[in-house]
Specification:
By secondary structure, the protein is of the alpha+beta class. Helix content is 35%, strand content 21%. α1 runs antiparallel to α2 (58-75).
Amino acid sequence: MPEPTPLIECVVNVSEGRNAATLEAIATAISAVEDCYLLHRDVGPGAHRTVFTFAGPPEAVFAGALAVYEVAAARIDMREHRGTHPRSGAVDVCPFVPISGISLEEVAARTRVLGQLLAERFDLPVFLYAASATSPDRFGLEQVRRGEYEGLAAKLQLPEWQPDFGPSIPHPRLGATVMGARPFLIAWNINLAPEATLAQARQLAGRLRGSGTKGRPGLFPGLKAIGWHIEEYGRCQVSCNVVDPDNTALARVYLTAVSLADGMRIRVTGSELIGLIPERHLRAAARGFCFEGGYEEEMETAVTVLGLDDLGPFNWRKRVLEAVYRDAAQTDRRSQ
């Protein structure tokens, strides 16, 4: 059997969620790279952040990532940035995810090459995290990003927080960037009814996430979560990264959140997917609610039981990674 064609995904998080012209310039730059397919754009005006998901052969995807940094360097100024999401730079975090035909270690090696190039080209501090990390204390994004943009200058003065590449002072407009290779994670927010307070959202997040709160471990080791308020929705959310989706079922997290919220006298109204999701994890959500059926039936059931249409229409055909990539590649072939 022939080896599968190497295929990777980049899920770059940019600290811009309000300037449509800048977001369109980034999307255009990604799409201009041959064999690099822009699969999804998730714009968050309240968080002042946008997630671009693109995929293709490694060479094309890394070229697409470089194009993102080039546009950000020309158009984003962190000195003017205000938003609810933690961040330390214009291109805040740039993860690369192996999909097929390439190992996590091979992708990590490529991130180091790109990191050095970015540092030299933009005079930008670059931190490596996850599988690319150069020390254990840089493995988690939350440790690397702690202090955010406003605390970056002081952090870079500490011997233990020298960047992997680039200067020991922040770029005034771009801040710093974090990049690395990692397995797939699911970015997903649990919606609370408008009467829930920020303190309650934070309390619920602490109960759910693996790190827990106040020295007590939480319920799901494969889950990271924070509570926040999103002005555009007029409500609080528990913002989640499911970092071990194979062992952290969405259905179980959701049902647990519903139960805990009920005990706090608040309500979970649904959830919000950020970016794309592998089809197996969405189908597993339906089965987690004891439903088994055909492919489309399971997808529709998962949308319903997780309340993914709570904040607006949700078309799973445009949010499942494999389906979106197939459609993008077929469209590209037809246009040639």
